[in-house]
Amino acid sequence: MTLRADLLPALAVFESAARHQNFTHAAEELHLTSSAVSHHVRKLESRLGVSLFQRHARGVSLTAEGRLLADAAGSALADMDGVVHKLRTQGDEQARIRVTTLHSLSYTWLIPRLPDFSQRHPELRVHLDTEIALTRFDDGGPDLGIRYGPGHWPGLSARLLMDDDLFPVASPALPGFGEIHAPVDLLRHRLIADHSRQGWMDWFRATDTHGAPVDEHHTFSDTSDALNAAAHGLGVALARRRIAEPYLASGRLVRLPGPLLKARWSYYVVYPAHRRLRPAASRFVDWLLAQGQA
C-alpha cells in the first residue's frame, strides 16, 4: 500500500495518541476533541487493516502492530522536526547582521538611526556588540564593525563613514556658564577629558591660548560618559561632534566659544578583506554609508 497524503493527518494524531497512550491527552495536545482523535485512529486502522490500539475500560494500549507503527511515526516526525529547525535556524542566520562598534557611537549616533533601517528592512535583525576589546573577525564572529581610527587595519577592508570635529561643551546649568566668552575663560572651570588621542592640550593650542596650565580634572574612558558628566554640570567637556549631536539637540549641552578642531581620525566601516559580505550585511553597510553622508 502506498502512503497517501490524506493519511498524514491521521498519522500525526496517531503518533500523539501512541506517545500518551491516552486519547484525551492527545486531544489536549493537538487542540482536538477526544472523538476526533478516535475518528483519525479508526480511519488509519481501517486503511491499514490492523488494530493499532486495544480498547478497554481503563483506556487504550498499543498492539504489536501499533507499537511498530508508533516507533516509525515517532522517528519520522523527529527527523522532520530536526530538519525544519535547521532550515529555520539557517534562515534566521541569513537575516542576522552582527555588528561591533564603540559604545559611545552606538549610544548617541547609531541606535537613534536604527529605526530607519528596521523600517526599510523589517526582515533583517541587527545584533550589536559594544565590547571595548579589539574584535577578531573570525568565522562565526561579527560581519562588520565601525571603528574610529586612521583608516587602515591589517586584513580589513575599510570604507570611510564620516569625519569628525572637536569643540568644548557644557551644561547651561554649569555655575559661571554665562561668564564664558572666550577660550581662556574655560580654564576657570573643571575640564573633563576622555581617552581620545586628541585632548584639551590640542584644542587650546589651536586657540593660541598660551601660558595658562591646562588641568584635566576628570577623565572617563568612554566619550559618552564624559559628555553625560558634563550634562550633569560636572565641568566642561571636549566633545566630538558625532557623539555630541543628541546632547546638543536636546539642549542638555551647549557649544562654547572657540574653534572647531578637525579630528585626526575618522569613523570607518570595516569587514574582513578575505571574504565577501553576506547580502544582509552588505545592505547594512550601504545604509550606514548613506547615513554617514547625510
TrEMBL record:
<keyword id="KW-0805">Transcription regulation</keyword>
<dbReference type="Pfam" id="PF03466">
    <property type="entry name" value="LysR_substrate"/>
</dbReference>
<feature type="domain" description="HTH lysR-type">
    <location>
        <begin position="1"/>
        <end position="63"/>
    </location>
</feature>
<comment type="similarity">
    <text>Belongs to the LysR transcriptional regulatory family.</text>
</comment>
<dbReference type="InterPro" id="IPR036390">
    <property type="entry name" value="WH_DNA-bd_sf"/>
</dbReference>
<keyword id="KW-0238">DNA-binding</keyword>
<dbReference type="InterPro" id="IPR058163">
    <property type="entry name" value="LysR-type_TF_proteobact-type"/>
</dbReference>
<dbReference type="InterPro" id="IPR000847">
    <property type="entry name" value="LysR_HTH_N"/>
</dbReference>
<dbReference type="InterPro" id="IPR036388">
    <property type="entry name" value="WH-like_DNA-bd_sf"/>
</dbReference>
<dbReference type="GO" id="GO:0006351">
    <property type="term" value="P:DNA-templated transcription"/>
</dbReference>
<keyword id="KW-0804">Transcription</keyword>
<dbReference type="GO" id="GO:0043565">
    <property type="term" value="F:sequence-specific DNA binding"/>
</dbReference>
<dbReference type="GO" id="GO:0003700">
    <property type="term" value="F:DNA-binding transcription factor activity"/>
</dbReference>
<dbReference type="Pfam" id="PF00126">
    <property type="entry name" value="HTH_1"/>
</dbReference>
<protein>
    <submittedName>
        <fullName>LysR family transcriptional regulator</fullName>
    </submittedName>
</protein>
<dbReference type="InterPro" id="IPR005119">
    <property type="entry name" value="LysR_subst-bd"/>
</dbReference>
